[in-house]
From TrEMBL:
<feature type="domain" description="CusB-like beta-barrel">
    <location>
        <begin position="282"/>
        <end position="353"/>
    </location>
</feature>
<feature type="signal peptide">
    <location>
        <begin position="1"/>
        <end position="23"/>
    </location>
</feature>
<comment type="similarity">
    <text>Belongs to the membrane fusion protein (MFP) (TC 8.A.1) family.</text>
</comment>
<protein>
    <submittedName>
        <fullName>Efflux RND transporter periplasmic adaptor subunit</fullName>
    </submittedName>
</protein>
<feature type="domain" description="CzcB-like barrel-sandwich hybrid">
    <location>
        <begin position="144"/>
        <end position="279"/>
    </location>
</feature>
<keyword id="KW-0732">Signal</keyword>
<dbReference type="InterPro" id="IPR051909">
    <property type="entry name" value="MFP_Cation_Efflux"/>
</dbReference>
<dbReference type="Pfam" id="PF25954">
    <property type="entry name" value="Beta-barrel_RND_2"/>
</dbReference>
<keyword id="KW-0813">Transport</keyword>
<feature type="region of interest" description="Disordered">
    <location>
        <begin position="27"/>
        <end position="108"/>
    </location>
</feature>
<feature type="compositionally biased region" description="Basic and acidic residues">
    <location>
        <begin position="78"/>
        <end position="98"/>
    </location>
</feature>
<dbReference type="InterPro" id="IPR058792">
    <property type="entry name" value="Beta-barrel_RND_2"/>
</dbReference>
<dbReference type="InterPro" id="IPR006143">
    <property type="entry name" value="RND_pump_MFP"/>
</dbReference>
<dbReference type="InterPro" id="IPR058647">
    <property type="entry name" value="BSH_CzcB-like"/>
</dbReference>
<feature type="compositionally biased region" description="Basic and acidic residues">
    <location>
        <begin position="41"/>
        <end position="71"/>
    </location>
</feature>
<dbReference type="Pfam" id="PF25973">
    <property type="entry name" value="BSH_CzcB"/>
</dbReference>
Amino acid sequence: MNMNKILIAILGAGIITVNPAHAEITSGSKHVHDKTTSASEVHEQEEGTSHQEHEPNAGDEDASHANKENHPNGSSDSEGHDDEHSEGDGKEDERGHGETANSASLSTSQMTLADIQVGTLTAKKVNFEFYAPGEILSNGYTSYQVSPRVPSVVLRRHVALGDHVKQGQPLVTLFSESVAQAQADYRTAWPEWQRVRELGRKTVGEQRYIRAKASWEAARATLQAYGLIESDLKSLASQDIKALGQYTLRAETDGSVLSDDFEQGQRVESGTPLIKLANEKQLWVEAHLPADRSLSLPVGTLADIVAGDLRVQGKVSQEAHTIDPVTRTRTVRLLVNNREHKLHPGQFAEVFFRFRTEKPVLAVQESALMRNPDGDWAVYVEVSSGKYRPVEVELGRALGALREITGIEPGVRIVTNGAFFVASQIAKGGFDPHNH
C-alpha cells in the first residue's frame, strides 16, 4: 500500500514536470496553425512530420554522398556539361558572326542569277542633268493686251481666237460717248488751227496763235490716248466720218490671238482685257526649282525642254530672287525659239539643266548605295572573286542619276549592279536563329 502511494507520487511529479514543455509546444502550434490542439496531439503531429521528413531523404543522402565521392569539387556532370556547351557555343557564335556579318561570298550561279556587276571606282568630271517641272508661257515682253481706255460698248469683232494678225490690223470696234466728245473737239480745233497757221503768228497775234495750237494738240492727244491712230485722225480732219463715238482698236504688234473674252453689244469698263496678242516666235519657259537647292544658273545656261514628244533647247534669261509664296519654289525663266509654232502657252514641260563638275569626283549610281545595319550608307567592295564586304561612305551632291561619295579610295572595285542582293546575303549570314 505504501509502495503504491510512492509510485503514484513519482508519476505525479513526472507529469507536472512534463506539462510545461507540452504547454510551450501547444502555444507554438496555436501561433502557426491558428487552431487549438492539445499537448498530446501536437506531440503526435510532430512525430508524424519528423518521420515523413526523414524517410524520403534517406535515398537522397546516399545519392548525394555518391556524387560527392565522384565529384570532389561539388559540381554535377550536367552542370559541367552545360558550362562546356555554353562556352563552346559562345566561341562558335563569335567566330561565325565575325566571318559572315562583314562579308558575303557568292557562287558563280548566284552572281549570274542576281546579275552582279563590278566596276572600278575612278575620279572623273561628270556631265549631269538636273530636272525641274516647267510651264510654257507667252513672252510678256512682246505680248500685247488690247483693252478700251474709256467705258465703251462693243459693236463688232474683227478677229477670233487663234487668228494670226499683223501690226495695224483691226481687232474690235467700239462706241463711247467720251470718244464722241473728243472727236467733236478735234473737228473744231483742227480747222481753227489750220486757219491760224496759214495767217501766221504776226497776223493773228501771239495769244490766239498759241491758244489755237494748244487746243488742237490737246484734242489730238486725247484721241490718241483712247486708241485712235493717225489714219483715224486724218478721217476726222477731212470731215469724212459717219458717226461720232465709234472707234476701232488695232493690233500693235504681229502675233496670235490668245484670248478674246468678250461679246458684241457688251459694255466694258476702261482697262477690261478684250484680246491678248502674243508673238509665239519666242516663248518663255518658267522652271520651278526647290528653294533649298543652291544651283548656279547664270544667264545663258543651256537646258533641254521637253513638251510631249518635242524636245527643244532653251537658255536661261532671268532668275527670280524671291520664292513663290504658293508653291514655295524658285522660278527660273528661259527663252525658247518657236518659229514653227509647235509650242503653245499653257503647256507643261520638263526642263533639264545641263552641268559639268569643275573637278574630278567619285560618283556612283544610286543603286550601288545601300544602308548598313547602323543606318549609314555603304558600297560593296570586291575582296576577291565572288567575295564582297561593305565600306561606309559619305554622300555628296546629287549629279543627276549619279551620287558623289567620299570616304573611300579610288581604284577599288565595287558592286555597281546587284548591291541589294549582296546586302541581303550579308544580312542572312548575320541572322542568329538562337537570338544570342
